[in-house]
Amino acid sequence: MDHFNYHQGHLHAEGVPLSRIAAAVGTPVYVYSAATLRRHFGLFTQALDWTDHLVCFAVKANSNLAILKLMGDMGAGMDVVSGGEYARAKAAGVPGERIVFSGVGKTIAEMRQALEGGIRQFNVESEPELLALSQLADSMGAEAPIAIRVNPDVDAKTHEKIATGKSENKFGIPIARAREVYAQAAALPAIRVVGVDMHIGSQLTDLDPFRQAYAKMADLTRALRADGHSITRLDMGGGLGIPYRRDNNAPPLPIEYGQVIRETVGDLDCEIEIEPGRNIVGNAGVLLSSVIYLKHGEGRDFLILDAAMNDLLRPAMYGAHHDILPVNEPRLAADVQPFDVVGPVCETGDTFQKGADLPAMMAGDLVAFRSAGAYGAVMASEYNTRPLVPEVLVDGDQFAVIRGRPSIEEILSRDTIPEWL
Ligand code: LLP
Fold first, then answer.
1. CATH number where 320 lies
2. Is there a domain that residue 310 lies in?
3. Same domain for 163 and 26?
4. Residue tagged active-site, from 1, 187, 333, 346
5. Please, what sign has the CA dihedral across residues 207, 210, 215, 216?
6. Pocket of ligand 1 (CB under 6 A)
7. 346 an active-site residue?
């Protein structure tokens, strides 16, 4: 459930008509609903209320400081994958004890930054990383709390570009080798083993892969304890999918997901960490855009928008679908017709949807891409020197620009022409 609904014929974000935001800020612009964020975070904490837990928001899904602050103030932890994301989490007021550091390629500088600033745990993904972290922490007179990310070799049944739990993927340590690597970790200076970590993929719409992976995690935890390791935390990763189509069968709910965790690892008396990103913020955001032209092509009509693949990359990159809603509510009997909805970027891949059923539209009309709060703004670029898309947060009847649109002058000022040219 989200808070983007029609009132009196106009699509609103909570109490604010999207047309008002478009008039004030211009388009394209991402618009987020604070109420939806709070609600989704609450669903995950409820789903785990049977145990000690920390919901670590996957910062990569949406890293705007205002979003992170809103989540952090509710008690969320953060899952970060770069020094930049770590700095964002800290700048949003989240203490190091609530930040976990994931990722296959942490640099020495990033690990140092986290050791200095405070960290809950590093999710270590390889032996070279483990050795590097041990050496670094030792040289700093620090101790690095770690979980090892284990690759359970489970098919997450999701898009190939976002499946991470098969043995052919670059992530984690093969589960068959986990005990050996934990033994190595325990013997290293300045390393403190605290838990086990997994993340098998994103946009999972079936609980079975989670169940399989977590059952393997439970077996591994028992084996590691028998080997003498103190395993007190299990990081279950993120990945629970969201409904991208309104008419679709909805994926499982957080409460059902929490039940799978309880059934598989609930008897181990561990603190549970989860790293949801998309499920919290995906349906809490829309990308608002204006029609620039309606172009009659051969056998098809193109709706040319002022948003493009650089603003919302998911359709071009994954063939992803985002429902497109006209901001002015179509009359019930309104005739719909198929449009190819495209952006202005000079690539055929800059197509959001082919044959989208929409009512008659004209230049200046507004449309909203649903489910764009996760992996939308964060994956945007300035390709074609289109200014980075701004972001707005709505809370009840108020809204604020939480990232402004850079001017062309600002963009140009970042480049330097060497004096010898
Ligand atoms: N934890 C780890 C270690 C991850 O790699 C990810 C996502 C998450 C948590 C959060 O997963 P979520 O709950 O959001 O599914 N750009 C792609 C998604 C990439 C996901 C990468 N890892 C997309 O637009 O679909």
1. 2.40.37.10
2. yes
3. no
4. 346
5. positive
6. 58, 60-61, 79, 102, 162, 199, 202-203, 237-239, 275-279, 314, 318, 374-375
7. yes
Q: Say yes or no: 144 and 262 in one domain.
A: yes
pLDDT, tens digit, for every residue of 218-257? 999 999 999 999 999 999 999 999 999 977 678 999 999 9
Q: How far is CA 162 from CA 82, 238, 247, 416, in A?
A: 18, 12, 24, 36
For residues 69 and 73, give the distance between their C-alpha atoms in angstroms, rounded to a whole number.
6
The alpha-carbon radius of gyration of the chain (Å, integer) is 23
Closest atom of ligand 1 to CA, residue 81: 3
Q: From the alpha carbon of 61, which atom of ligand 1 is closest?
A: 14
Last residue within a domain, chosen from 274, 296, 330: 274
Mean pLDDT over 8-13 rounds to 97
Q: What is the pLDDT of residues 23-68, one digit of tens each?
A: 999 999 999 999 999 999 999 999 999 999 999 999 999 999 999 9
214 alpha carbon – ligand 1 mean position (Å): 18
pLDDT of 362 strictly over 80:
yes
Range of the domain at 214: 103-274
Read off the pTM. 0.97
Instruction: Identify whether 60 is part of a domain.
Output: no
Average pLDDT, the chain: 96
The residues near 358 (Cβ < 8 Å, ≥ 6 apart) are 303, 324, 326, 330, 336, 337, 339, 341, 367
Q: Do 126 and 152 have their domain in common? A: yes
